[in-house]
Design goal:
10 helices; two-stranded antiparallel sheet; alpha/beta; seven-stranded mixed sheet; globular; 372 residues
Length: 372
């Protein structure tokens, strides 16, 4: 039987992580305690490569410290508490002790049947190349130790363009069953296997908007987080690899998610702005790096692409974008020079708000690609 909803709570996630630590410590404790490093060979049989569950660099052998191996197994840095927080809020804007930076509880939704002239207002014109490449004041939440100038990157050329009749964009969902606030959610239920109610519906809006602007896209709706949540990124990588083989014209991979945070009083994080009186979910672009040791030497190309989308969206839809988030994790973004995670709204936003945000960020992306 295919269930429509199911529950994954924070408590269960932490229990899973702690269980993983105990299993690993029992299985490889002797190896880790007697050696300063672990050799991981790409021969297809090594147990450590299977545990790490990510493709290793294109070298015959790579050495990982004990701490690195443990961190990759459990999915967060044991010595950096903020990375544990990131498991509950999958893409957070950075840890802080300043309570003034904590978002307000979700605002009351507008009735879905509400219509007005504003909802039918004319879309803003697409900015030209000069506007897209001349950003000032773009905000970057940098969780890495890399020194980057996102405004300078925005002025550089990208190798991506929309001058092909073949698919250029692949849309996937590592956490396919993530859904939004509404009748389909209660308590800490954050998943739904109905594709009309989860992030797949947002992916459809992004695909339709790109194609309406002359950019061909493929939307792969494979479930990667159900029935098992653990290993979702490894399964998503297989999907991406298969799609790139089937469609070698694809240069851009968009992994569409939604953010999540639950306050102590049970309310949920809502990130939105008003566009002509219509509430629209905000979007955050997430860029992975090679900070954790996995090969990803071209991450700056992804960040360059993100900066141009961010700038175009700021011109077209002021208030739509949250700051770009630069992370230590790779997030499968090593596969192309235009790979990004899109966090469209949060678990406190409605699906209607998320669809609106997806349409707007897709139109900003189309402006970037059509300006080439």
């Amino acid at each position: 039987m295919k269930f429509k909803t199911f529950v994954i709570t924070k408590k269960k996630l932490m229990a899973t992580a702690l269980g993983a630590i105990m299993v690993v410590s029992g299985a490889i404790a002797a190896k880790l305690l007697t050696e300063k490093s672990v050799s991981v060979f790409k021969d297809g049989t090594n147990v450590y490569e299977n545990i790490l569950s990510e493709e290793l660099p294109d070298s015959e052998e790579k050495h990982f410290s004990i701490r690195t191996v443990i961190n990759k197994i459990v999915g967060f840095d044991m010595e950096e508490p903020e990375t544990v927080i990131s498991q509950y809020s999958p893409i957070f804007e950075g840890t802080t002790s300043d309570t003034e930076d904590i978002p307000e509880p979700p605002a009351e939704e507008l009735p879905e049947e509400s219509t007005s002239e504003e909802t039918q207002s004319e879309e803003p014109s697409l900015p030209d190349k000069a506007q897209i490449c001349s950003s000032v004041g773009l905000k970057l939440n940098n969780a890495t130790k890399y020194d980057v100038d996102v405004n300078a990157l925005c002025s550089e050329e990208i190798s991506l363009s929309a001058d092909t009749s073949e698919p250029l964009v692949l849309i996937v969902h590592t956490h396919t069953t993530e859904c939004y606030n509404g009748d389909e959610m209660s308590g800490e239920t954050e998943r739904n296997t109905d594709d009309t109610l989860n992030v797949v519906a947002v992916g459809e809006e992004i695909k339709a908007t790109l194609e309406a602007n002359g950019i061909n896209a493929v939307h792969d709706t494979t479930y990667h987080d159900y029935p098992s949540y653990q290993g979702a990124y490894s399964r998503a990588l297989t999907t991406i690899e298969n799609q790139l083989k089937a469609n070698p014209s694809i240069k851009i991979v968009l992994d569409v998610h939604r953010d999540a945070f639950i306050y102590p009083d049970g309310s949920k994080l809502s990130v939105s702005y008003d566009e002509n009186g219509v509430s629209t979910a905000q979007v955050m672009l997430v860029v992975g790096t090679n900070s954790m040791g996995l090969w990803h030497d071209n991450w700056r190309e992804n960040l360059k692409f993100a900066s141009k989308i961010q700038n175009a969206a700021e011109i077209m839809y002021p208030g739509l974008m949250r700051p770009i988030n630069l992370r230590t994790e790779r997030f499968n973004e090593h596969m192309t020079l235009g790979s990004l995670i899109l966090e469209v709204g949060s678990n406190g936003n409605s699906l209607a708000e998320a669809k609106a945000g997806g349409r707007e960020v897709a139109r900003a992306m189309a402006a970037v690609l059509n300006a080439k």
